[in-house]
Amino acid sequence: MLKTLYVRVIITFIVAVLVGLISALFIAIMMYRDQLAAEVNREAVKYGQAYVDLYEQYGINEADKIIKILEPAESYTYELMNEKGWLKDNVHELFAAYGAIPGSSMANTVLAGEPVASIEFNIWGNAGIMLGTPLTIDNNRYALFMIPQSSNQLIILNKMIVVALILVLAIGGLCIVIAARYLVRPLKEMKQAVEVMASGRFDIQLRSVKRKDELGQLAKSFSVMAKEIGQMDEMRGQFVSSVSHEIQSPLTSIAGFSRMLMLDKVEDAEQKKRYLQIIYNESQRLSRLSDNLLKVAELDSAAPAFEPVTYDLDEQLRQVIVSFEPQWSAKSIEIELDLPHVKINADEDQLSQVWINIIGNAIKFTPDGGCINIDISFDAVDIKVSVSDTGCGFPPDEGYKLFERFYKADKSRNKELGGSGLGLSIAQKIVNLHKGKIGISNREEGGARVDVTLPSRAAKRKALSQPEKST
User: How far is C-alpha 27 from the geometric centre of its chain's CA atoms?
Assistant: First the structure.
């Protein structure tokens, strides 16, 4: 069973080389076999006819002597056969390899007066051509079979080809063994890295990242993935810790004050009412935190709910502002609006959550008697909603952290004002889902400004609205 890629690469190479070489050899044989046979056959026919003439003119014995005198090197191996069999007992096995056997169809064909040619061409043994020519001596029919000595050279050539194939396979196999180790090493390194990551460690270093080929690119991508997974694991730990802290604080308050009320240790009615109000407030805080966590989980899912409809964006903003009237009225905050009539195609419920989070933050951090500006601007492509306040702003070096989950720029003040630190994170998720952008900056005159840009191909201004002012 092939268990390693290393072994598979080597065996695949060997099989590929064998199939390629053998296929190439047999294709070459098929391409040149007829040409080679025709050339040998032409020479054999010429010499065969000369032999036939000698035998017919001088007889068997005299013709043998003449042939030996004229061709002492015997460029052809020849033998005579009649209806009884071979006339001499010497090289019958050589001829039999080509099918020339007394009583065979080949022998009978030649004895009947028809010449034949038998071609053998393979890489393992016999190779060449045998010619069978009929002749008549003293009214007796004979069959002259001849094998050119060049056939022996072909046999040697075949053996050379076989040896060459074996050497190519051996040397190529050695090279692929070395190359396979080089190819498989990065994969083994990444396998070990995966095992390390499975144990909870993500600070891995791969030497293969220095390679310039595809495996080097894979190693770089693997390292980036490991780093991102490590960051996600760290964020997960921070998330769990933050959630635990956010839940533990109100639970502690609820448990403490409810226990005091249960033990009847508070006799003052006003004090009891204050404790009950604290319990109620903390319960509401837990409820909001639960809703926000569910919203975050929904937005983090692979397919968050997204049901876009076309509606009036300016009207939606007015409704959100009206819903916050008790809060901004209690702090005597001035609300300035510049909301021209504009339609947008988006998920109405999700964008409503964005405005609730952003405007709610603006009201929360704007001091008593402050001012909040909300305006809309747009062109043929985008719609931009801006919310500005006159609060304390945020530290410039912490702006990039404001969209992180549970982050609070001023933790001491946030503890007094409440909030889970999820509002801007949820808003960013929803805006990204709409293929938009959200940013926050400090204003020169004080306070912060949040800009939300959303795409709207069909954004059309129906009427110019005058700036509105509410107090």
Answer: 38
Q: Is beta strand 334-338 parallel, antiparallel or unpaired with respect to 371-378?
A: parallel
> Over 211-273, what HEC string results?
CCCHHHHHHHHHHHHHHHHHHHHHHHHHHHHHHHHHHHHHHHHHHHHHHHHHCCCCCCHHHHH
Determine whether domain 5-162 maps to CATH 3.40.50: no
Phi-psi region of 370 (alpha: psi -120 to 50; beta: other; left: phi over 0): beta
193-203 burial by CB neighbour count: b if 16+ within 10 A, else e? beeebeeeebe
pLDDT in tens, 392-430: 888 777 766 777 766 655 544 444 445 566 778 888 888
Q: Minimal CA–CA distance to 110: which of 139, 152, 143, 155?
A: 143
Topology classification of domain 236-299: Helix Hairpins (1.10.287)
In one-letter notation, the amino acid at residue 51 is Y
Q: Could you give the residue range(s) of every CATH 3.30.565.10 domain in the chain?
A: 309-470
Architecture of domain 309-470: 2-Layer Sandwich (3.30)
Q: What is the DSSP string of 24-59?
A: HHHHHHHHHHHHHHHHHHHHHHHHHHHHHHHHHHHH
Average pLDDT over residues 341-362: 89
